[in-house]
Design brief:
The protein has 130 residues and is an alpha+beta fold. The protein folds into two domains: 6-97, GMP Synthetase, Chain A, domain 3; 99-130. 58% of the residues lie in helices and 17% in strands. The protein is built from four helices and three strands, in the order αββααβα. A three-stranded mixed sheet has the order 1-2-3, with helices on both faces.
Amino acid sequence: MRKNSIKNIRLNSEVQKELSSIIRDVKDPRVSPWTSIIEVYVAPDLKTCKVWISVLGSEEDRDNTIKGLQSAAGYIRHELAVRMNLRNTPELTFISDTTTEYGVDMIHKIDEVIADDEARHVDSEEDAEF
């Protein structure tokens, strides 16, 4: 299976759906309920799988969630094997993805700049009237 083949893209999508469901069932208290899977990449040989995780909350929540998922990786891999009929069940590597938080932070900064600019524009119009 090639890296970007249709089969590999479909496999990544199916693994992402199953992992999202499995992670909700993990009983580890370190795993935040606000965890979402951003992207999954299964290697073409089905030996490894990189899972990018986003956690809504503080940096401590994110670190604890990654530790909890790494601790439960055996259970998650077993459940993935039960739910999906794959030749090999890949080893899971969880990676923290902060792009969502970065995007939200940038939107807030843009909104602040726009509000500040509008306030200056209103002040300059009031000064021009007098």
